[in-house]
Known about the structure:
Helix content: 25-40%
CATH architecture of the largest domain: 3-Layer(aba) Sandwich
Radius of gyration: 23 Å
CATH class of the largest domain: Alpha Beta
CATH topology of the largest domain: Rossmann fold
Number of helices: 9
Largest sheet: 6 strands, mixed
CATH superfamily of the largest domain: HUPs
Number of domains: 2
Structural class: alpha/beta
Number of strands: 16
Amino acid sequence: MLDATRGDVARQARTLRAFAARGLHGIEAAESLVLLDERGDTATLVDVSPTPAVRLVRTPPRRADVAADGLASLAPQTGAALFLFAGGPGGTELAARLARRVRGCVLTDALELSGSAEGLACRRAAYSNHLIGHYRLPAGRLACVTVDASWSDTGAAAASSAPGPCARGGLEVLSETPAPTTSSVGPFECVEPLDASPAAGLTESRFLVVVGRGAGSRRGVERLAAAARRMGADLGVSRPVAMNGWAPAGLTVGVSGARAAPDLCLVAAASGAPALVWGVERAAFLVAVNTDDHAPIAHEADAVVVDDAATVLEALADMVEEHGAGARP
Length: 329
């Protein structure tokens, strides 16, 4: 579901495209349903939609009630068991209104969805992002789900199609493209799990990268973890990263995890709370990578790089790969 009557349709499309590619498991996305008003550029909206199959639907702007009424009459004709919305107030309101009208179920801020005969299983953050909750949405009821705002993507836009006006369900359907018999979006790629080696193993590490909450999301942590692997480094994380569910708890470094003494330790995107510093202070050489040169970790480190952590680590990984394994500690 894209709501082009709002001004952030490009963000919605990026979010849903990324979620469809990495956050959906065992579910095939059939088509994009795009709400637009009189000002909507139909060609652009077809191009930006996250799936090849697109249905454009005219609706009055700022009238979620009218849109929800029309979607409720349209939903049975689509045969869909899941309506997926980008996060934010607009998506949440529309999802809730639609679920109420069709006697479906609604869940907000999904981090991951997987389908089975029993229904949809969902993971989402809980308790102010300190825990990850697991939810089951029952089979046989339309699920209206909004995607967590942390999802984003810059992938290529979906293929366009020519318009063909018709009317349906109280809303004007401007164009439709048939859903392919086999969706080109699926089967969906599962998120590659991070290495969940026991934290005790980190005490033997010679080269350690410790990722902090500044990574921003599970995907941010995975990006830094990929750079660490390319450099031949072991991965550790701060306690907030583990509590947010962005990495296994077994990778925690600090008072609640491992105390390491590597030859080289890179602390990336972590402010440097005392509990974390305790876990890395025995490193022979400690490097802090942070956008804030006044972060506490900067006063503990032997060297400080003031820049985006992912940019720095990926550049370092490129250098290590270029010069070979001999450049590693």
